Amino acid sequence: MATMSIGKAWEEAVAFVAREASLLLPVALLFVALPGLILDQMTPPQLQAWFAQPKMETIPAMPPGFGLAMMLTIILIWFGSLALFALALRPGISVGEALRLSLARLPVLIGTALVAAGALAAVVILAVLVGVVFSLASKALAATLGLLLGLGAAGLVFYASIRLVLLNPVVIDNQAGVMASLRAAWALTRGHFWRLFGFLILVMILSTIASTAAQAVVGVLGGLIAGVDGAKLAGSIAAAIVSTVIQVYMLAMLARLYRQAVG
């Protein structure tokens, strides 16, 4: 098992981003920040409130075409992240070459997502069937078992997401297919779960604090100039930019961790 140093990855990522920011940031802003910002502006207030506090019994109606817009946004962000990994993993590659490579490997990444979604659906269906069987004997027992199965499924998804955190660099750095990429990404993180978990939690906390602060400060300034609507738009743009910059550093670190894992 290869060693994995978060500190070394951070030093290399900072140096890399400082050196190649003129290549990385335009790609990140165009294919990561902008699609997310557009989708955010398209999302109705009641749907935004539900995303913040989801409740299965009060799911708001989704506007026509919003589901398609969400899927396109996700695919664009995946495309941009693959291009960023290509720039981070292949020194000397141009932005155009990175984008073409990302487009060529995007179907594999989509395929891995479909496989993961299928596996999750199978787990959910199995849990529902078990709950139905036990409900015939006792509703109380079925409710308890349903809660335990729900927690178990959530834990499984969480564990798998950490173990597959190097999937994007695997996809962009190799010519392997869907299943081979999944197996390779899973193997590379063996023995590194808690280290990667701590790193991702730290990045999530930092991104949340920084983007929230930027949204609040710029939102106030925007409100003074253009009123409530201006405050919302200015705050959203500031939060998206700050969050994207942090993501660039995170992806650069993941690229370095990937190189450590493959030796």
What would you note in describing this structure?
It is a single chain. The protein has helices at 6-42, 45-52, 66-89, 95-137, 139-163, 167-173, 178-188, 193-262. It contains 8 helices and no strands. The relative contact order is 0.14. The mean pLDDT is 87. The protein has one domain (6-262). It has 263 residues and is mainly alpha-helical. InterPro entries: DUF7847. The chain crosses the membrane at residues 21-39, 66-87, 108-134, 140-160, 196-225, 237-258. Residues 4-260 form the DUF7847 domain.
| Percent of sequence in beta strands | under 5%
- Average pLDDT for all residues: 87
How can the largest sheet be summarized? none
Helical fraction: over 70%
Radius of gyration: 21 Å
Q: Output the helix-strand order.
A: HHHHHHHH
Low-confidence stretches: none
Number of strands: 0
Number of helices: 8
Sheet/helix structural class? mainly alpha
Distance between the terminal alpha carbons, to the nearest Å? 9 Å
Spatial shape:
globular
- Total discrete domains: 1
